[in-house]
Amino acid sequence: MTRSEQRTVSTEQRTNKSDTASESQVTIERSNTVPPVEGAPDGVITLKDLEVFYSDFRAVTNVNMSFGSREITALIGPSGCGKSTVLRCLNRMNDLVPGARVEGAVAYHGVDIYGEDVDVIEVRRRIGMVFQKPNPFPKSIYDNVAYGPRVTGMKVSDMDNVVERALRGAALWDEVKDKLKQNAFGLSGGQQQRLCIARAIATSPEVILMDEPCSALDPIATAKIEDLMVELASTYTIIIVTHNMQQAARVSQRTGFFTAEADDKGQRTGRLVEFDTTEHIFGNPSDARTEAYITGRFG
Amino acid sequence: MTATTLVVDQSLKSGRRKGVGSTVFAIALWACLAIICAFLFFVLAVIVQKGLARFDPNLVTEHPSRLRPDTSGVKSALFGTIWIMVLTALIALPLGIAAAVYLEEYADGTRWWNRLIELNIQNLAAVPSVIYGILALGFVVRGPLSIGAVLLAGAIALALLILPVVIITCREALRSVPSEIRSGSLALGATQWQTTWKQVLPAAVPGIATGSILALSRAIGEAAPLLLVGATTFLTFNPDGVFSRYTVLPTQIFSLVPLDRVEFRDLAYSTILLLIIVLLVMNALAIWLRNRYQRQW
Ligand SMILES: Nc1ncnc2c1ncn2[C@@H]1O[C@H](COP(=O)(O)OP(=O)(O)O)[C@@H](O)[C@H]1O
Ligand SMILES: [Mg+2]
């Protein structure tokens, strides 16, 4: 996707503003319906033959999986196997990478989000994202949380209430309620990451994507975020990329294991090796490569 | 044990031999620096010493006069400089910032036309200022626009002159905003425009302001392009609008220096001192801004 395509999408959004405001209405056109993947859970998001290229380089291929509603799905695998790439496809953040191209389908409630007429803004409002490194805006804590509802034109009668609910949802309210007007950069790393989670849930998404959200945090902050994820899973569908297998085992219900094996031309393309319940993946994996990875024999 | 220590000690000491060359080199560098500083100091000292003679309130409260050089001032030129600086900023900053935003945030840098634009901006920054004067003379003062030798024409010439520098410094300021801010905003459902307007530009304001002030301080020190577009050298009224005739400090200095009465030359020195003070204040402001809003990431 190029930047120019993104611009077209932004103009679309402005014309769609009135729809966006009425919150629960689905504005995505139901014209790109994709049949469900066989044998996979009846998911909120379903990937069908997903294949991603960065210019000529095929980063991942043949990914078929489905993410269950109000479940935590973990994506694990050695680094460079395409976990982040797959995750970024789920809310079209790959559009921002020049030269990135996505084949196959990413179906959100049966609608291909890469199809025509899809409002990418609405996709990102419903499918939020938390990044590896906490990235609060250089603004006040309050403005960080209020930013999403403001820019997406959500009809909000009481912004204070939205901000409080989001901060409570991210287990941060008690720590920041007296300093909402202070700059978010004054918070600790763990607090900043929970602020980013609050920011994501303020737009009332259905799905939250997390790309190694704890890799920049200390063990105590990590434990807090893990507890939070489990709590959030009662409301949201969570998909988390992690390099920490204990974390995947602790928090997730389902786990997908990726690897990138070099082909005869020496190109390393990521593939989904095994996708099953977390219990199965960590207790009794079907694939020898999965077993080797989780027992620490490679990767 | 002791043997090892000894060896280490000796190898440390033998390092002194290399020190000779680098000491000589360092001294050479210091000498260069000292020569440059000495020159600067000498120029400044001369200007201050000779400029102080007429550095009195009359300098800024009186208009130029052919008859009373000992009590006249350069009021019309100071006001002209302020006018032209504001007008230049009004023209160059919106254009320059918009161009920088396009190139940094929107343009696909792999396209040949965007690369061509970039290359041209780099080249334009190196074009001598007098060329911009000729351009404005041909297209603005006369030619298609034909607005005459007025303030607006001078401001257009200076705006064209500083535009490449403004674009380049604004791009640097935008580039220093981390991409995580952009992806964070876009991931929340903000449009490209909202992301630029609400996140990237505010975060880049200190850098943009610093760069703009430095560019403007270059503009108000210019005499050559303004002489071409017809800034007068002798004027006894302040500009009263963008279509007014005008004079500025550098052209005033240019006209005072060759005059043979010593009073005129004293006035020229104090005018130079005044211009240097204005420039120092602007540069100090730029430095203060840069330090005040140190990058937060
Ligand atoms: N923006 C990009 N441009 C080009 N190649 C990329 C880009 N991002 C990732 N890749 C490549 O895609 C492959 C998968 O990367 P990534 O999805 O980041 O893996 P993971 O998150 O599993 O470590 C890697 O070979 C990486 O070099
Ligand atoms: Mg990654």
Automatic annotation (TrEMBL), chain A:
Region listing for Disordered, in residue ranges: 1-40
Protein name: Phosphate import ATP-binding protein PstB
NCBIfam families: 3a0107s01c2
GO terms for MF: ATP binding
Record-linked InterPro entries: AAA+_ATPase (IPR003593), ABC_transporter-like_ATP-bd (IPR003439), ABC_transporter-like_CS (IPR017871), P-loop_NTPase (IPR027417), PstB-like (IPR005670)
Protein keywords: ATP-binding, Nucleotide-binding, Translocase, Transport
Family annotation (Gene3D superfamilies): P-loop containing nucleotide triphosphate hydrolases
Organism: Lentzea pudingi
PANTHER family membership: ABC TRANSPORTER I FAMILY MEMBER 17
Domain of life: Bacteria
Compositionally biased spans, kind Polar residues: 7-34
Domain ABC transporter residue range list: 45-285
Gene from which the chain derives: pstB
TrEMBL record, chain B:
Transmembrane segments: 23-48, 77-103, 124-141, 147-168, 219-237, 267-289
UniProt KW Transport keyword: yes
Keywords assigned: Cell membrane, Membrane, Transmembrane, Transmembrane helix, Transport
Statement: the UniProt record of this protein carries the keyword Oxidoreductase: no
Superkingdom: Bacteria
Residue intervals of the ABC transmembrane type-1 domain: 78-286
Subcellular location: Cell membrane
Entry-linked InterPro entries: MetI-like (IPR000515), MetI-like_sf (IPR035906), Phosphate_PstA (IPR005672)
Topology within the bilayer: Multi-pass membrane protein
Chain's role: Part of the binding-protein-dependent transport system for phosphate; probably responsible for the translocation of the substrate across the membrane.
Family listed: Belongs to the binding-protein-dependent transport system permease family. CysTW subfamily.
Protein name, entry field: Phosphate transport system permease protein PstA
Lineage of source species: Bacteria, Bacillati, Actinomycetota, Actinomycetes, Pseudonocardiales
Gene from which the chain derives: pstA
